[in-house]
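Appendix B. Extra example for self-study. Work through it before the problem class; the solution is given directly after the inputs so you can check yourself.
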Amino acid sequence: MAKLIVACGSGVATSQTVASKVNKLLKEKGYGDKVEAVDIKSLKQFVKNSDVYIAITKPKEKYDIPVLNGIAFLTGIGMEEELDKLTTILDSLKVKK
Amino acid sequence: MDIKDNLIVILDEKYSSPIDLFNKVIENPEISCLVKDSFLDEIIKREEDYPTGISGPYVNFAIPHTDPDNLENPFVAVIKPEFPVQFDAMGMEEGKVLAEIIVMLGVNKNGQQIDLLQKLMEFFLNEEDVNTIMRSNNKEFINKKIKNLLFN
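Solution. Structure tokens for the complete assembly:
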């Protein structure tokens, strides 16, 4: 399974809401991959071991893994496009394995 | 105290910036009793590091919040200023958002906040509900309507 992470400033509301939403959408599409809400202070560490980073804050640097726009999942605006991007990435990861 | 007992609506104030807004809102006696002394600095800092302005399809808004350690009791403050207040955009977007309505979230980590935030986002995507709230200038009406939308 691919490892997906989301992080936000206070770890209270936004990251968990996005994680919850994405997990639900992925399940509906038949994907078992899960998103984890992580502490943004340790983001760099988590990124090393993850496959996709769903960002709801401005990324402070370039990461080696794909970065998606998490706000789309929070507000629902542009969500379909972002979800398509995510499932395309997940599909390509499965093929590599 | 449950969060739904602490839904506060503030209308028609003038704010020159998010910091000005935070200062004035937290001074409001309905809110100051619900937060610790650290809340003001923390929410200013959080907004600077991780801004919360969002361009919605029907209205521009902001959802400032910070660590629940700074709360005495959970609350939601709905602020409709006299003039839109300029926030920075949340997430990967560049630019500014002229927020016409600000929802300050004094939420705890108990899981309730996910449901609340999702309902809040659904509200902002509903043209009719947004227009109803934006057109009203009656505190009680707005309070009742938002309570209904968020806590049902």
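Self-check: Chain B touches chain A through 28 residues (CB under 8 Å). If your reasoning did not lead you there, revisit section 3.
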